[in-house]
C-alpha cells in the first residue's frame, strides 16, 4: 500500500491492480469499503469493459476466455515514480495475460494531486508488433456513509448535458443505443429507482457529473465517451458507482470478433493511448 496526500486529499493505493483503497477529502473517506455486497472499491478496467458474451471473444480465429471487466484489477503493479502528491504505477504483460489477451502491452496509471483536484491519467503502450484492440475504464464506488459525512447536508446528482445517447442493456449486454433526454439534476433516490429497472445506466457524451449541495461540489470530469452508473442493491443503496468507460460490453448480437466489438480501441504498434479523469472538490461561498 502506498499513500499520497495534500491539504485536501489523501489517497491510499494498492499495488494489486493499482486500485484506490482510500479516497479521503478533508479527512473523510468517500470510497466504499469492501464487503460481501461488493468486494471492490475502485477497480481499473482493462482490456475490456463489462462482459463478453458467453465469456469469450475471438481474435485471429482463436477463442480467448476473459473475466468481466478484464484482468488488470488482479495484476501486480510496480511504482515507477512517486512524490508526496503524485504517483505512477505500471504493469506489464506476462504469460498469464497473454493467455487471455494476445497482445504485449504496458499499462500505467498516474494519480496526481493539484490543490482541490485529483487527476488520474491512464496510459496504454502497445509493445507488440501488431495493432492492439482494447477497452479501459474506471469503476469507483462512492459510499453514501462517506458522502453524507462530507456534505453534511442534502445533495443531489447533476449532469453536464440533458441530451445524451443512452446505452440499453439486456441486462448485461448492449441491446441498442438511443437518443435520450435526461433531467439536468436528479435526486440519488430517483437514480436508484431507474437502476432497479435497468441494473446499469450508461450515457454517451457526459463530460461531467457532479454530486452537489448548496455549499459543496464533488465533480467528476473525464475524456471517455461513456459514463455508467451502478449499485449492487438499488432497493437499499449503500454506494453509487460512477464509471468512466472507454468501451462497452458486448452487443447482444455479437459475432464475438474482438476487432468488431462496439467501442473497441485500436492502437498501432509502438503507439501510446492516453486518457484523463479529474475529481474536483469545491466549497461554494454563500
Description:
This protein is mainly beta and 286 residues long. 9% of the residues lie in helices and 47% in strands. It is built from 3 helices and 25 strands. The strands form 5 sheets. Strands 8-9-10-11-25-21-20-15-18 form a 9-stranded antiparallel beta sheet. A hairpin with a 2-residue loop joins β3 (20-25) and β4. The protein is globular, with a radius of gyration of 19 Å. The protein starts with a strand and ends with a strand. The mean pLDDT is 96.
Q: What's the count of strands?
A: 25
Q: Ends: how far apart?
A: 39 Å
Pick out the low-confidence regions. none
Element-level helix/strand string: EEEEEEEEEHEEEEEHEEEEHEEEEEEE
Report the β-strand fraction as a percent range.
Answer: over 45%
**Strand sequence of the main sheet, in spatial order?**
8-9-10-11-25-21-20-15-18
The computed structural class is: mainly beta
What is the averaged pLDDT score? 96
For the largest beta-sheet, the strand count, sense and barrel status come to: 9 strands, antiparallel
Radius of gyration (CA) equals 19 Å
Residues in helices, as a percent range: under 10%
Overall body shape: globular
> What is the tally of helical segments?
3
